[in-house]
Amino acid sequence: MNGWYLRSVAVAALAAVLLPGELAAQANKTWLVGQVAPLTGPAATVGTRLDKAVKMWVEDVNTAGGIAGRKVELSTCNDENRPEKAVACAREMIDKGAVIIIGNTLTASLRAMLPLVRSGPTMLIPSPNIVPSPDSYAFQVSPSDESITESVARYMQASGLKKIGMVAATDASGEVGVASARKVFGAHGFDLQLARIDLRATDASTQLARVVGSDTRLVYSSYSGGGAVTVVKSYKNLGLEPPMIVSYANISDAFVQIVKDVKPPRLLGTAAAGIVPDVLKDPGERARSKAFLAAYTKRYSEPVDMINLLGKAATDVADAILRKVPNPTDFNAVKKYLESNVVESVHNQRFSPTSHVGLDSSAVVIVELKGRSWVLADPVK
Amino acid sequence: MNLFTQSVISGLMTGALYTLLGIGLVLVYRTARILNLAHGESFAITGVVAALLVGYGVPLPVSIAVAMLVAVAFATSLHRFVLRPRSEWPAGTLILITLGAAFVARGVMILLVGTDPVSFPALFEAPPIRVAGGALPVQGLALVLVGFGVSVAVGLFLAATRSGKQLLATAENPYAAELLGVDVERARLIAYGIGGLLSALAGVLLIPLIAVDFQSGLAMTLRGFIAAAIAGMSPVGVLASGLGLGLFEAMVGAYLGALFQDPVMFFVLILVALWQSRKIRFGGGRRA
């Protein structure tokens, strides 16, 4: 009895000394989320927009007290869209012990980073150009470029078109676009007229002259950023009439501001349907999209664009991992969870053991710029 | 649409741009013996400031005038307050300082307009001129006319005016020019001013046809440098090299594809450099 009493007192005393410290340590621990993004350099316009969505998520989570008692600590590394720098960034994140890396950068950088995360941590990718291997720990939260091209093909079918002119950039993203176009349009038996444009080009009229014939009724520019503006303005300068589809990366207010006075008679774009929430059939997706659109606009005083939306998709998956997987540092457990559960988001992400791409072509729609808003596009008449 | 005609039109526009940028770079190089890597920033500054002012509702002509003034002020200030006090420093260090100035300008532009591209309306709003199956925007015609016209005017200014001759004298031998009463520093300031003005002019004429962002400047410097280098850093030669480069680039892009543009262009640049250096290599050559 005496021994039991003494042991109890000793355990209680030890607990009294250690437990508050343990609790404090637990509270002080954070979920370290790494972000690799081009915040300067040629792709800064993409990196900064994705970064805004990530920062918004981190602040919202931490304001609400964190996840499982831990706050989220964001560590951002600017890779300037340079693959060698992206690799250094990824190494730094892994060394720091990041539980998730959000790869908010572009194709070449992402490809360079992938071998480093072969054994974890989990990497989330908003770019459509990667299509990670199902045996990896990388997950793509956007539809693949092929799915995006498939949506263009669907639109052509709905419009009864058989021929399309396409202008693609001479970079890694452009090459992915060209490969998708050849595969998808070829499979549909469409006639593809293709021209590439250098990233520094100050005129796209020769490219357009190459791809637009008298019987061309639709032109697709997979180019993004400042180069896309050059294509649109050259289109106007040539006085071309057919509707023009621009890349999803151009579904932004900044782009609209520049081209609003020089846009073709019909300016279309590829987009995730969440950008026009009313077309979403799933009530949950519709509600989440609307909520994000409103919250983002309130916070940053600017409308949401496609890049922000993909950033939101990445943070939704990150959020689900931290909340639903008992030990998010067990990357096999994370993989298993993502492969067997639907992650609720602005577009629900459906990964599987055979595909680490969360969205398919059904999430992509063709939108049209009307005024300053993007709405679902009618077929070409 | 006729691909050949359109390539010629595109080549003329690109050539005019090369020429405008190249002449300014050459003038500065020949008077101050410095390759000004911040040269293209005047182009970007013009676009950013004009876009910003137009966005605030300032009338387009006023916006453009202010933007050009800021661009010229940037170019002349770089000389007057940064490079001139360090004129005894090695040329390589001064060139690095101009690169630093270019990055400072980039930083300021990011603060002003962020990372997204910006633009402003064209000076000439009219349907494109259609000729032989090609289309030339009126703004593009202005770029061609002003680009090559200004190049000729600068050549005449250098050859026929007192200030121009002082610039040339400073370029040939600054010490001898100083002994002959030429205000060398004033001549250099004028060269930086003209360089900035031409770069700004290129911006006013081209940016409405494209867009500009905080990092456009260095690409423009590179374009000017290619034209200048092929011309052997000769202000008159830039006219020919700019025109030739523009047409060549457009033809390569149209008939071989954009993937071949850079390899072919830089291969030609190497060939020209080898050709120009033949006399230096084999004795008795002239250097820029």
Offer a concise description of the structure.
With 381 residues, chain A is an alpha/beta fold. Chain A is built from 12 helices and 13 strands. In chain A, the strands form 2 sheets. In chain A, strands 7-6-8-9-10-12-13 form a 7-stranded mixed beta sheet, sandwiched between helices. In chain A, strands 2-1-3-4-5-11 form a 6-stranded parallel beta sheet, sandwiched between helices.
Describe the fold and architecture.
Chain A is built from 12 helices and 13 strands. By secondary structure, chain A is α/β, with parallel strands linked by helices. Chain A has 2 domains: 27-143 and 284-361, Rossmann fold (3-Layer(aba) Sandwich); 146-277 and 365-376, Response regulator (Rossmann fold). In chain A, the strands form 2 sheets. A 7-stranded mixed beta sheet of chain A has the order 7-6-8-9-10-12-13, sandwiched between helices. Chain A has a 6-stranded parallel beta sheet with strand order 2-1-3-4-5-11, with helices on both faces. In chain A, helix 8 (226-237) links the parallel strand 8 and strand 9 (244-246). The longest helix of chain A is centred in the first third of the chain and has 27 residues, at 2-28. Chain B is mainly α and 288 residues long. Chain B has a single domain (3-282), classed as ABC transporter involved in vitamin B12 uptake, BtuC (Orthogonal Bundle). In chain B, strand 1 and strand 2 (134-136) form a beta hairpin. The radius of gyration of chain B is 19 Å and the shape is globular. The model of chain B has no long low-confidence stretch (mean pLDDT 89). At the A-B interface, helix 2, strand 7, helix 7, helix 8 and helix 9 of A face helix 1 and helix 10 of B.
